[in-house]
Amino acid sequence: MSDDITLGEAVQREYEAWEKEQLLDIRKQLEEAKVRSQIASLNSETELTPGLAAIFTGRSERNLRELRGTKSGPVYTQPETDSTARNQKITYRLGDLKDWLASQRTTSTIHAAERRGTMFATLQSLGVPEPFWVHKQKGVEAILGHVLATPLTSNLISGHAAHIEWIEWPHALRMPWSNGQQRQVFEVPYTTLLTRALDAANAGREATELI
Length: 211
Description:
Oligomer: single chain
Strand order of the largest sheet: 4-3-5
Number of helices: 8
Strand content: 5-15%
Distance between the termini: 36 Å
Helix content: 55-70%
Mean pLDDT: 77
Radius of gyration: 22 Å
């Protein structure tokens, strides 16, 4: 019995540590979203450091550095000097970052989802809360769009158009959306993943019946 209790306590501690990690990650994401909104409200001529540019664009500083190397990222400024040091001061104009983000998002909403990595790679990924813009549509709470796939506007930043809610995908796709086309973009990979899981379960049942 004592061994069982010890094992149970160990499992409980492991779960509590995992839960704490998840809460810290969500808190970090919320803080980043808050800072991103504050940055977006600044004058478009504001020069940002690579660190602030990374937060605003949702990229890492390393990724921005790689984009500078391939010349496929946002426009940046690097003063002309005689120095060949790699740590020369680099800045990004806020307006250029907004233009670059807009060009990335208007290509296709699903690209924004794909850039986030494994959004629909596994069933476990569906249980991770994602940030959505939610607002009132004809008196009903409806999803305006995924935060990282929706261009920022002054109404969104001010909170007049919508507010952010962290929702798991199964619940999000049970809710009404203001934009049916954007919902369809996310619904396709979602239903594809569920179909594959169902097919795998049916294959396992058939193999069980044969045995």
